Amino acid sequence: VLLPPASAQASPDPLGDLPHGVSPVARVAPAPLPTPSSWPFPDAFPETSGTGRLVEGAMEWTDFLYDDHGAHGLASTGYTGEGSPASQGTYAYPDGPARHNGADIFRAAVGKDAKASYWRVDWTTLVDANVPLAVFAFDTDDDAATGTSSWPAGAGLTSPGLDKGLVISAKGAWLQGIRVADTAVDLTANSFVVRLPDSVLPTEGRWKVRLASGLADPAGKGFAAVSGGSLPGQPPVYNVTFRDEDPASNSWMDKGQAAAIGSGDVSAYGTVVDWSALRARTTTPEVRRTGISMRWYPSSLPLGEGSYPNASNSDGGTTLQDYEPNLRSRPQPYSVYVPTTYDEAKPAKLTWILHSLGSIYTQYTAGPASDLKQFCEDRYSVCVMPEGRGPDLFWYDAGEYDLWQVWNRVATDYALDPTSTVVTGFSMGGCGSYSWPLAYPDVFAEAAPMAGITANKAYRFAIPSAVFPGSPEVSGLDFSPRYTAIGDQDPLVENARWMRFFIVQGLLDELVPVTQNIQMADRFQAFGQRYRLQLHPAEGHTEWYTKGMYGAIATNLENPHVAVRPGHVTYVWHPGRFHPEWGMPATGSFWVKEPVARQHADADLARIDATSGENPDPVVTTHVATSALASTDPSPALVREQTWTTGARAAASPTLVLTLTNVASLTIDLPGAGFAPTEWDTDVTVTTDGPSALELQGLSEAATLLLDGQPVTGRLVVPAGTHHVTLRRGGRSSADGLASGRLPATGSPGGAAVVGGLLLLLTAAVSRRRLATRPVSLL
What we know:
By secondary structure, the protein is mainly β. It contains ten helices and 41 strands.
């Protein structure tokens, strides 16, 4: 099912579809890729891999990223050098400038002007122009019954109807074995462009065009041998484009390609070039699909080029993690599921589904289709599955930067409800489903970590060889000191006052200690916050993938909306987690904005607690219930849940109370906190452990400030201790007001007692009912 082009969407401006609290980098479109100077047509390539379009004289096609490993040969299954699920192809690259990705076709194009045709190949990685070689195979009458079948340049490929072949390397272009042109190499654009005058290559009618790539021999006229990983006689071709792929069980989207290259027959692939349409400068809309599609964007974060393997163990094996970006080139992939009922006039929910350690952006698209249907189709949600620059960044640093830039592209292309964003994920994705929403608590309405790590510490665990063949029986997860410091989520639980957490965990989990998630639930309960803890006594860790358990999570999401203008806001953060130099600073929460810490090492914490008397919250009564779900998918579960009912609000008062720890500066959005610009004088009580600069947004020009009774000129800096700031705004004088309502703290049973009690519930089958959980409106 195809969607209308982006230009026809009701809300093409992404700013309106982004929640207010997103990182600033999400509001800036990624920097476009350079256009090669020798290309006289627009750069309007599709952002969906496996698709093409016509644009003002050119046919422009986008291939799949990092799908450049040829046929299936000698390499074992399991983990590739990139530390991710193995591609179907097993060809290796030589060490050096190929960077494990040197023959990966990113995009391809054919153009036509009044005098010549143009043949373009863009490479995902192009450090040394002498590395790759591309071959175009032409069926110039689109008739498989004429011509030959064998490709030139020692490709080892066949396709019927082949009439001519064009070999392109940095050293030139050869048509039918005759050198006919120089190649315009653009190392900035990672591009090869060849211009062929009509006198050299006449172009009429409709052609079937195919394209393959590999490593160039020293002369640049033919394919070099595969560097390793191939069987004798297999073609030396790493990548074939002008093809689509079925996402099922297809991690790197090369399953069909690997089989075709292995057989040598690539007749199933190719695209038709209609020269009359190119001469007419016809333009067709970009293909954008409902259901699953693989997409790309040009990252603005410069990390070099190539696909970098993880570090090696002392025994010569490959580690599961090195905490470095593994996919370095600017084009970065992500996958998206768009409901078949999608209507741009009806904004959709947005659901982030984050992959686990050692996996990639296709983890969920390659799994059971029913799970994505429940997450996306049944909930009318656009579901986004990012790559995060590799398999092991735990959604920090470059991994988090990837999330924000993907969000920009998705918000540009689809109509989204900015108040209904949910994040979920398994294992490392569960870690991100804690850390991301807790760092940006006014962005997400709900979070659902599945078997998520909540404290990044060293673990030793067994890896089932049935899941990852060839893996060691016992492996290690030794977090970097940085991730150990910024990965402790316990102190950040206060941030989730206005968000529901749905925690799912196997009681027999051999990788993630079940006590971590029980302790997190205990903390949510102690702070009087909404949560659901669902324990599956019969499940371990890997069952979340092998049994396809994600759908059970989707059916229990509440799909609430982000709160609007709460009166009590707490924001605790790890300053070292953020990257202001990348446009990715700490953003605060709701009307507490732009916080900056005095101490910002990885191990440091900072905290802001702010209560607006002008906008008191409703009185909240908490309810804790336990139950057993005897028939939940895929196995019985034990549930503990805390819900809310809300009552009346306290009377408003013109007071603001701030308690600051390790806060150098922050901004208070007074209208967001409920203060009108000209109404009431306001008393602000500030308790801080060091000097804190305050910016008060929303004051009228006539407003004056007093610090402990003394007029303030210039910047407002509150010294350590407890101090009073008076805001005189020219309106009515303030009177003593009532304290605003706060969430009641409730006691929390210990983790062991919870597990024991829940097991008794299950054993006795006391209850099979599901708890009725409804979103609480706090608008």
